[in-house]
Give the backbone structure.
Amino acid sequence: MTKSKKKIPTAVLTVLLIVLPVAAAIVCLGIGRYSLSVGETINVLFSGITDNEVDPTGYTVIFNVRLPRIILAALVGAGLSCAGAAFQGLFSNPLATPDTLGVASGASFGAVLILLIGGGMIMVQFSALAFGLLSCFITYTMSRKNGKSSIVMIVLAGMVISAVFEALVSLLKYVADPEEELPVITYWLMGSMSRSTYDNLLMGAPFILIGTIVIFALRWRLNILSLNDDEASSLGMNIQVMRLIFIGASSMITASCVSMCGQVGWVGLLVPHIARMIGGNNNCSVIPISAGLGAFLMIIMDTFARSATAAEIPISILTAIIGAPVFIILLRKTGGSWT
């Protein structure tokens, strides 16, 4: 069974999971072209309770522009980090990501298809979510043989489905109008929180929350699933059912994240590794730490993306520029080992 380096105190877990993201959100709400101090931000946030007079412009900027973005960033960061940690534990592979089963590629195809025919953003989100879940279903169906599926077959089927949907996305980009449609498609695929609205959150957030809660509630079972099939079965676990639950929850998170903000790379790969350095290999600690760190880091990155330059930087560019060097440092520090 997976060994744990040390037990993380409950207070530390609470800070990582709740206090750190909330503090980052309050600070980042005031950062931008229209700047607000922390005190002013808190005053605006609680103005409905305190009845204090606030600047109407500041109120509009915080509640209509920045708050939906920060909520989305926190959800995406926490969700993708949990999904990545779940897949790494499930497949016993430190390089597993939320897109291991081709969900992000399928969701991207669904979004690009609607963008190409001129649909609205709600239709883009719905199509991306539908095709993301469809790709997961196809992957799992392809991996089954004699009523069972193995880890190797699931991963290989995911690689095939991912390649197929990536090819279809390339085909749609090839036939798109280079003056009008192609730039929109390209920018969407780079990832951005700028499209976040309360309506989008209302549609996509429940999938992320449900998937994350399922992974969090069953996180201790990942320690058993990391064993070989015979050992896991001897402990009384229904391996096929439990794999399907984790795959479904992680895929639901990934598809919903991509449907709302496009592709966001590295978060689901990098954050679980940082969580293991903090709390050891026990998934009971890795999952909550990953969720808190993921939310914190994504809030910081999105704030930098929208405020560092006059034009917004696509989030996937930032995550790659920051994530790749940090991942190399982690590899050199740990030697590529989880133990």
